[in-house]
Automatic annotation (TrEMBL):
PROSITE patterns listed in its UniProt record: AMP_BINDING (PS00455)
Keyword field contains Ligase: yes
Recorded superkingdom: Bacteria
Domain AMP-dependent synthetase/ligase: 63-443
One Pfam family from the record: AMP-binding_C
Domain Acetyl-coenzyme A synthetase N-terminal: 3-56
Name of the protein this chain belongs to: Propionate--CoA ligase
GO CC, one annotated term: intracellular organelle lumen
The keyword Ribosomal protein belongs to this UniProt entry's keyword annotation: no
Length: 631
C-alpha cells in the first residue's frame, strides 16, 4: 500500500486502523477499543493496561536482543564514545527504579529530570516509566526561575539532576541552578538524586540530596508496573503566549502505539537499525525520537553531547553517521545552516562514508528552501521536512519513507499523516480554497499520542486549543495546502517565536523585562536571523525621569533575561523607544513591528492609534542596523 491507500484506510476506519497499529505493543491487558469519547478532547486505548519501559527495554531482551546496543553516547566535548546494550539498560533502569521506589516514588508521582545529554537522562526517564511515575524533563538551557515555575506546577516528589552540563568551552553548573530553583519554588521535593560527573562534583545537601550511585547501592531492582492506557506518561512544558508554560500531558498507550507506528512508517526504522535524532532530551524531539520511539522499535539510538559545529568541526554529524552506520538521521534546519556556513562546499561531508544513510529528516522550524537544496546536493539522499509540535508528539505532516517516498516539494513538509485531518481555516472557521493562507487546524479527534489536556489545566487546554474553532484543534501555525494536498507552514498565529529550533515565548521575555525597575513598558518580537531563523528583540520604554544611559539599561535587561529564562533565549538585542505602536483598544502591534524590523512590506493597521509611532520604531531599528541585519 502506498501513502494514498494508507491514509484512505485510516479515513475509512480510524478505529480499525489504530487497533491494527496497537498490535505492535505488548499489552498487559489489551485495549477493548481504540477511541474513548471522554476527557476534554477524547482519549485512546483508555481501558488497556501497559508499561512503557517494558515495551522500550525488557521486551527486546526477552526477544533475544539483549546484547544489541540500545544507547550509543557520543560526546565530542569529553572525547568519549560509549555503548549500552539492552541488557545493561534493563539492569540500570530497574536498579534506579528500585531505588526511587525505596524512597517512596510510586505510580502517579511526578519526578522532574534536569540533565544534559548523557545516557543517564534516558535511564531516569525510563526508570520513571517503569514505576508509572510521571516525569517532566526540563531543558538544561533554562535558568533556575523556569525550573522553579515547573516545580510549582507539577509538584514533583523527587528531582533527578546531573552535577553539570557541558557546553563548548563552558561548564554549566546545574547544581546551583537546582538549589536556587528549589529555594524559589513554593513546593519542595522530598529528595533529589544527583548524577556526579567527572567534570564537576556537586556539593550535596545533607538529608535531601543523594548521589546517583550511592542511592542505588544494594536496592532491589523494580519490575514494570502496569498502568492504564490513559495514565500520563510524562508532562513536557512548552511555550505559550503568556509567561506561564503549558504542561503538555502525554498519555501512555496512545504514545506507545503512535510512536511505534511512526518508526517504521515515517522513518523506515525497524529492530536492529540505527537511528539518530540530534536534538536534546529537554525538547519533544528528544522525548519521542532520542528516547522512546527508537527504543520501542528495538533500534539503536544516539545520545549526542555536542554541537553541529565547533565540536570540533562541522563534520562531526557525518563522522557519527559513518561510525554508527546511521540509517535515518533527524536534525533541525538551523544545525544545517550552521554547518553550511562553515562548510559551504560540503568538504567535510566528502570525508565520510555515508552509504547507510537513507534519508535526512528535518523539523523544529521551517526548513528554508536554500538549506534543503544544499543538503540534497551534498548528501545525495532525500531531505524530508516534517511538521509537528510538542502537543502532538509526532508528525502531523510528513513524507512517510517507510510507506512510500512522495515527491519532495521543497518548502513543504509534504502531506498529513494518518490520524490527522488537517484543514486551513479563515477567521470565521470556514475551510479556505487550496493555495489560500489561513490558520491551520486539525479536525477532532486528534490521533493517539497527542495531548489529551494540559497538566491540571483542562480549562486552559480548551481555551488555548479548542475554543477558537469549535470541532478543531488549533495548531497556532498559519499556512496553506496546495492543489496536490501538500501542506505549507509559514508562520505562527500567536506570539511564540522559534529561535534555533527552540520554541520560545515573547510573553515570558516581556514579563522579565517589565520587572526591570527602569522599564515602564516593553514588547518583544522575533526578527529574522540567517542562522537561528529568528532572534528575540526587545523594545523598551523607560520610566519617566530615568536618565540612565540606554546602553546600561539594555545590558541589564539582557542579563536579566539570561538569568531568569536562561541562555537558550538568546536574548541579546534591544532598543529604547519612547512609545509602542498600539491599536485604539491598546493591543501592541507586534506583528507590524516585526515586519518593519525584517524590512517587509506591511499594511497600516486600520485600528492603529497613532501611525507616527511606526516611524519612530523604524528610526530606532535603523540606528541598530535593521532591517539590513535581518536575513
Ligand atoms: N544547557 C545550558 N546552556 C545551553 C544549552 C544547554 N543544554 N543549550 C544551549 N545553551 C546555551 C548555549 O551555550 C548558548 O549560550 P551563550 O549565549 O553563552 O553562547 C545559548 O544557550 C544559545 O544556545 P544555542 O541556541 O545552542 O546557540 P549556539 O550559538 O550555541 O549554537 C547552533 C547555534 C545553531 C549550532 C545551535 O543552536 C544548534 O545546534 N541548534 C540545533 C537546535 C536543535 O537541535 N533543536 C532541536 C529542536 S528539534
Ligand atoms: P515545538 O513544540 O517546540 O516542537 O515547536 C512546534 C512549532 O515549531 C510548530 O508549531 C511550528 O511553528 C514550528 N515547526 C516545527 N516543525 C516545523 C516544520 N517542519 N516547518 C515549519 N514549522 C515547524
Amino acid at each position: 500500500m502506498g501513502y494514498k491507500e494508507v491514509y484512505s484506510a485510516w479515513q475509512a476506519d480510524p478505529e480499525g486502523f489504530w487497533m491494527d497499529a496497537a498490535k505492535g505493543i505488548d499489552w498487559v491487558q489489551s485495549p477493548s477499543k481504540a477511541y474513548f469519547e471522554q476527557g476534554p478532547a477524547g482519549e485512546w486505548f483508555a481501558d488497556a493496561m501497559v508499561n512503557t519501559c517494558f515495551n522500550a527495554v525488557d521486551r527486546h531482551v526477552l526477544a533475544g536482543r539483549g546484547d544489541q546496543i540500545a544507547i550509543m553516547h557520543e560526546s565530542p566535548i569529553t572525547h568519549s564514545t560509549k555503548g549500552i546494550t539492552y541488557k545493561e539498560l534493563q539492569a540500570r533502569v530497574s536498579s534506579l527504579a528500585g531505588a526511587l521506589r525505596m524512597r517512596g516514588v510510586e505510580k502517579g508521582d511526578r519526578v522532574i529530570i534536569y540533565m544534559p545529554m548523557i545516557p543517564e537522562a534516558l535511564e531516569a526517564m525510563l526508570a520513571c516509566a517503569r514505576l508509572g511515575a510521571i516525569h517532566s524533563v526540563v531543558f538544561g538551557g533554562f535558568a533556575a526561575h523556569e525550573l522553579a515555575v515547573r516545580i510549582d506546577d507539577c509538584t514533583p516528589k523527587a528531582i533527578i539532576a546531573a552535577s553539570c552540563g557541558l557546553e563548548p568551552g563552558r561548564v554549566v553548573h546545574y547544581k546551583p541552578l537546582l538549589d536556587a530553583a528549589i529555594e524559589q519554588a513554593s513546593h519542595k521535593p522530598e529528595f533529589c538524586v544527583v548524577f556526579q560527573r567527572e567534570q564537576e562534583v556537586a556539593k550535596l545537601v545533607e538529608g535531601r540530596d543523594f548521589s546517583w550511585h550511592g542511592f542505588q547501592y544494594g536496592v532491589k531492582p523494580a519490575e514494570c508496573v502496569p498502568v492504564e492506557g490513559n495514565h500520563p506518561a510524562y508532562i513536557l512544558y512548552t511555550s505559550g503566549t503568556t509567561g506561564a508554560p503549558k504542561g503538555v500531558v502525554r498519555p501512555t498507550a496512545g504514545h506507545l502505539v503512535a510512536l511505534n507506528w511512526s518508526m517504521k512508517a515515517i522513518y523506515n526504522i525497524e529492530a536492529g537499525d540505527r537511528f539518530w535524532a540530534a536534538s536534546d532530551v529537554g525538547w519533544v524531539v528528544g522525548h519521542s525520537y532520542i528516547c522512546y520511539a527508537p527504543l520501542l522499535a528495538g533500534a539503536t539510538t544516539v545520545v549526542f553531547e555536542g554541537k553541529p559545529v565547533g565540536t570540533p568541526h562541522p563534520g562531526v554529524f557525518w563522522r557519527i553517521i559513518q561510525n554508527h552506520r546511521i540509517k535515518s538521521f533527524f536534525t533541525a534546519p538551523t544545525a544545517l545552516r550552521a554547518i553550511r556556513r562553515e562548510d559551504p562546499n560540503g568538504e567535510y561531508i566528502k570525508r565520510y562514508k555515508l552509504h547507510e544513510m537513507q534519508a535526512l529528516f528535518l523539523a523544529g522550524e521551517r526548513a528554508d528552501p536554500e538549506t534543503v537544496k544544499w543538503a540534497q546536493e551534498h548528501l545525495g539522499v532525500p531531505v524530508i521536512d516534517h511538521w509537528w509540535q510538542t502537543e502532538t508528539g509526532w508528525a502531523i505532516a510528513g513524507n512517510p519513507l517507510g510507506i512510500e517516498l512522495l515527491p519532495v516539494k521543497v518548502g513543504s513538509p509534504t502531506k498529513p499523516m494518518p490520524g490527522y485531518d488537517v484543514q486551513v481555516l479563515d477567521e470565521g472557521g470556514h475551510p479556505v480554497a487550496p493555495g489560500t493562507l489561513g490558520a491551520i487546524a486539525i479536525k477532532l479527534p486528534l490521533p493517539p499520542g497527542t495531548l489529551p489536556t494540559l497538566w491540571n489545566a483542562d480549562d486552559r487546554f480548551k481555551k488555548s486549543y479548542l475554543s477558537h474553532f469549535p470541532g478543531y484543534y488549533e495548531t497556532g501555525d498559519a499556512g496553506y495546502i496546495d492543489e496536490d494536498g501538500y501542506v505549507y507552514i509559514m508562520a505562527r498565529t500567536d506570539d511564540v517565536i522559534n529561535v534555533a529550533g527552540h520554541r520560545l515565548s515573547t510573553g515570558a521575555m516581556e514579563e522579565v523585562l517589565a520587572s526591570h525597575k527602569d522599564v515602564a513598558e516593553c514588547a518583544v518580537i522575533g526578527v529574522a536571523d540567517e542562522l537561528k531563523g529568528q532572534l528575540p528583540m526587545g523594545f523598551l520604554c523607560l520610566t519617566k525621569g530615568c536618565t540612565r544611559p540606554h546602553a546600561e539599561v539594555i545590558k541589564e535587561c539582557v542579563r536579566l533575561v539570561r538569568d531568569q529564562i536562561g541562555p537558550v533565549a538568546a536574548f541579546k538585542l534591544a532598543v529604547v523607544v519612547d512609545r509602542l505602536p498600539k491599536t485604539r483598544s491598546g493591543k501592541i502591534l507586534r506583528g507590524t513591528m516585526a515586519k518593519i524590523a525584517d524590512g517587509l512590506e506591511y499594511k497600516m493597521p486600520a485600528t492603529i492609534d497613532d501611525p507616527a509611532i511606526l516611524d519612530e520604531i523604524s528610526a530606532a531599528l535603523t540606528a541598530i542596523g535593521y532591517p539590513e541585519k535581518a536575513a
